[in-house]
Amino acid sequence: MSFSEWKTYQLGELLEVKYGKDHKALSEGKIPAYGSGGIMRYVDKAIYDEVSILIPRKGSLNNIYYLDKPFWTVDTMFWTKVNQNLVDPKFLYYKLTTFNYSAMNVGSAVPSMTVPVLNEMEIVAPDLKTQQHIASLLSSLDDAIELNQQINKTLEEMAKAIFKEWFVDFNFPNATGKFQETEIGKIPFGWKVATFEDVFDADRGLSYKGAGLAESDATPMHNLNSVLEGGGYKTIGIKYYNGDYKDKHIVNAGEVIVANTEQGHKYMLIGYPAIVPQFYGEHGIFSHHIYRLRPKPNCYLSPDFIYHLLLQQQVRDQVVGFANGTTVNMLKIEGLKKPKFAMPPKELAEKFGTIAQANRLQAEQNIEENQSLSNLRDTLLPKLMKGEININS
Fold it and tell me: What is the residue range of 221's domain?
């Protein structure tokens, strides 16, 4: 079917826009309640339980969602009833993601969208069969991305579970059940109490000027936005730098970095670790809002062990105990020197390191694959929506 045969509709012909409702009176449950920024909470009641496309009314106007399970929306998010006699819901969802809703903003202080503006949007679409083929192709890419994300979550949870079992609960392979009293409590017989400064060096990164920031053909700079709240590496936070730096500002792939700054005192970011992934190259640099942890030459603890150690609440409490500040919370470097932990035998630590590293490297491969899939989807999407690719050929 050629593009000249596609039909033009007004969006109001293809769906009915409905208003969200207040969620405060709802009890906790398993049904997601959406605002314009995403899921706000889970409630016990659905506003709708059929296929729907969510369109923001206020706030982040470009956050479009496709849902095929029960949901609730608050008053900042429209939900819709799709006329499936005219349009495939998934096709329409992809079509709607190609619009720039910020350009349709009718608000002043808060970006806003109205029903009349939405209803008058022009949607050009082929016949239903072609719509379904287009939606199926794009969905297959999104499904592959989601599968990789689920695999990565499982890999991370597996490593966390093993670490807790072996090094927190002390149910490790060939455990004798014999313990010794120490200043940090009972630990397995033969283990020892160590401090962070016994096993790794912590260093602060580069204090840089904005003029040194560049495009992606410069040196990767891992920064505060490279660490996820709760720990882990955030790929969308990478910056690039073409200014001067010293060898002490270099961080290698596979090394641990730790956030040392946070706005406020919620402790959602400060003190949390990440491991620098390989897909930015063997070497990069790190900013002054980050500490780099580098094992001492005689240390047999792997970066993966250190990463998971820093996630443990008993250790984390010690780390953030060295944080202070008023508006901005800062972690003193002593917070990565003085904390104590139970040092396991070399063989056990290395066994965990082997497992956790394999999981992490597999996850990094999946992230790279997802980036390729996302790029392919983003390339195909506008071409498919303009009829530039004959999906039926």
Answer: 192-343
